[in-house]
Amino acid sequence: MTHVRNAWHVAAWSCDIAAEKPFAISILGEPVVIWRSASGAIRALEDRCIHRLAPLSLGRCEGENLRCLYHGLLFAPDGGLLEIPGQDLIPPKAGVRSYPVADRHDWIWVWMGDPALADEALIPPAVGTSDPDWILGYGQLDYAADARLICDNLLDFSHLPYVHAQSFQAGPEFAANPPKITPVERGVRVTRWLPADVGNWRNPHDVPVEVYQTYDFLVPGVLLMWSANYPEGTAARLGDAIPAMDDALSGLNFTSQAVTSTGPGTARYYFSWGPHCRHGDAAKRDGMMKMAGLAFAEDKTMIEAQQRVIAMTPDPKVMPTAHDRGVTLYNRLVEKLARHNPSELESAA
Amino acid sequence: MTHVRNAWHVAAWSCDIAAEKPFAISILGEPVVIWRSASGAIRALEDRCIHRLAPLSLGRCEGENLRCLYHGLLFAPDGGLLEIPGQDLIPPKAGVRSYPVADRHDWIWVWMGDPALADEALIPPAVGTSDPDWILGYGQLDYAADARLICDNLLDFSHLPYVHAQSFQAGPEFAANPPKITPVERGVRVTRWLPADVGNWRNPHDVPVEVYQTYDFLVPGVLLMWSANYPEGTAARLGDAIPAMDDALSGLNFTSQAVTSTGPGTARYYFSWGPHCRHGDAAKRDGMMKMAGLAFAEDKTMIEAQQRVIAMTPDPKVMPTAHDRGVTLYNRLVEKLARHNPSELESAA
Amino acid sequence: MTHVRNAWHVAAWSCDIAAEKPFAISILGEPVVIWRSASGAIRALEDRCIHRLAPLSLGRCEGENLRCLYHGLLFAPDGGLLEIPGQDLIPPKAGVRSYPVADRHDWIWVWMGDPALADEALIPPAVGTSDPDWILGYGQLDYAADARLICDNLLDFSHLPYVHAQSFQAGPEFAANPPKITPVERGVRVTRWLPADVGNWRNPHDVPVEVYQTYDFLVPGVLLMWSANYPEGTAARLGDAIPAMDDALSGLNFTSQAVTSTGPGTARYYFSWGPHCRHGDAAKRDGMMKMAGLAFAEDKTMIEAQQRVIAMTPDPKVMPTAHDRGVTLYNRLVEKLARHNPSELESAA
């Protein structure tokens, strides 16, 4: 499975990294330890002591440093070895790998590729759960499936009428016509106008509305989507132009989602969702999160079953359909970005 | 492990396939979905959508067809692709494999080999649980063991005095003398006369009787056995001739059993047992099934332990004994039938 | 992983082998059945019937012999095949492997290498739990880790201040200075003098004492350690000489520990500990065992985590430190002893 190493991978919710408590996660099959130092800096190192390969995440934060709690080796934030108890000479180049890491939009992001290329400007513009403009709930799910299968799912909403007919009350409109797909910097954009009749949960009015829905899906697996209701006729009037959020009649909401490959056949899926503060309140957010909880469990059931079928298939092949344009475009981008760094082509996580 | 693909494999109890409820099973490591259509027809398809390999068993029956509930592709009973939501052109030859399937003797049978060779006359003549001549109980067990180990067990009853001394009150007679073994069409026949003293559960009389016991073991792993009590001296009088069921003194009973390879190292074992309606009633059947429940759990304990030992043995070899004639004859037949279709030799389920 | 086959491996606590109850264990990935015969002799055979590879540990003791309870084959204590029910001819050389076995120091020891080399004088001089001079508690733990990782742990006590700061109240003295390491016959000796201030659990006095601590670590993974308190100044006075147990002020105690490789990535760890009968009582033993229970759980957490990191590391390499002298010396000895028998180099358990 090809993955883009030179990208910011979501490693945790910011609020889950407590002060001076090391946190362990695998990303692309590599063990990573993340912690907040005494000064509040966020740090990420290879979670594997050079001495005997014990995980540093079982270690102890000491000021800005992290001590392995097996035999006491002390590592600097850049991974350099500072101390070996009982030994005066420290091999000068000894140390573990350090990863560029950022605390942004209430997520912790880790750059898994060449540190020289780690540009914080490439962090996808997710909406953080603490953003005052939005009222967001959040959660996460661990998958027994390759990250790619979850990305494929998120890049093709034609599954909504089949997987989510109940939870999201998704009608055939999601499968009847493909959305508009356009390439964007490091991702693809998926945009559509949908009708919402009176009675649909999206539509609080007593007349039909038009729902604008748009998301960017960005490497290595980040979905950023907003949608809102507009008066009938808006789509025809605007053509390809993007409606202004401020002109929304109602229902303006945002969801940020991230798929992180933790290793071959496993992934972690993070998500937040909720209304704009002028379009809803905590009760509305809770209703939406309840719906999302049902829907994301439906996805998990299907995708993990799909993974099991793939695992028992000697030479698995897919047959793309008209709805796979977004999937195909995105996966080609992944291949292209991975080729930039030949070592990534071999990355098998 | 060699298996006979060109054979009818038991895939389910007929009563477990409800109307329009897809049922999933692996046979020889292949995912199969079975369902009863709106018209009542029984159907079996490859349980793997050609689009993205989601299991069709999570799908929805629509009339005679089956719809994948991931992205909505619709399949005909012959596996042909009928519909791709949102796409007008259907690739003309696209589809999934369909399997010949039959609902017979209260079992669902699936032909895993060349459909052109699927002859319903080859379905083993099991006695169905609804047969009015017999009063049968039934059950099934999932094994963490190769199907072959269960077949080996059923082909050699010399294990009875050791594995089933308690449950079946089996005495040394099962091991003291090998039974008569003869080849039959697509299987082997195992026949013996056994003494049953007063007090043995098989013998309800106050004089000793002779028990005739005969079974055919047929590819791909179906055991069909009857036994009954006869007056002392019958064996000597008849020689090799088969006694008539109608002449039985008492204890006439029938068991149908089937071993299905679900994949490498796993199998499902189906069984029914009970008295002839003139030789017992529901209470007798219940007593017999209780005994069988104990006995089949004894087999499972031994065979799964045997499988674990084999798994930790680099180059496992067996040493056949005099009692292995049936095992050897049957396994040679399996090799021969598998050779008919070279692809079967590679089948590793 | 290299292991010394030509060594006595601890297979069980003596008291866990009941009369005529076969006991199963894997050693170096080989299935072994151990039992006490009718005459009380301890026996060990390959736990794999030559007929169809069923485990003999599901079998039945009959006098001095062991019968497989699958098809009834009977084996002599030397592994020779005595009986095949229903078959007159017994292949003269047929049988299973028998292992030299000894019941010594309340442990059952199995020699996994060439039986001709099995010399009971090579059994490490552990202190049995029934030894009247000592008041010992005991226990065992199953590890999801290679035996070697546990041996490495026991050969380097510099982990004590980090892993066992709480449980054993180990101070930095265990890591500050390496102990004295010397080769001994089939192992290494680790010896040190440690200060114990007033208040330390080791020191029941109102003045500081000096603790002498010494252990031999012997193939295939047996640790035999004693320690005791001496008056301040004893270390300087004695130099390299070994203090007499009889001269101990207080705190004389003994622990016997054994690491048995049960297979690749798994091990069983046996331990006993307690005071000399003139230096403590059952209450003291219970307090020590409670402490050991906490400490050995700390080791298990660390070592199993280390094993998981190693498993996800493509080409795991260690960086030895000054404290690894014992580890390195011992592992070189293992390589050397394994080379004596070329087949051992291939042993991958």
From TrEMBL, chains A, B, C:
Protein name: (2Fe-2S)-binding protein
Domain Rieske: 8-110
InterPro entries tied to this protein: Cholesterol_7-desaturase (IPR050584), Rieske_2Fe-2S (IPR017941), Rieske_2Fe-2S_sf (IPR036922), VanA_C_cat (IPR044043)
Keywords: 2Fe-2S, Iron, Iron-sulfur, Metal-binding, Oxidoreductase
GO MF annotations in UniProt: 2 iron, 2 sulfur cluster binding; metal ion binding; oxidoreductase activity
Species of provenance: Novosphingobium fuchskuhlense
Higher taxonomy: Bacteria, Pseudomonadati, Pseudomonadota, Alphaproteobacteria, Sphingomonadales
Pfam families for this protein: Rieske, VanA_C
UniProt keyword annotation of Oxidoreductase present: yes
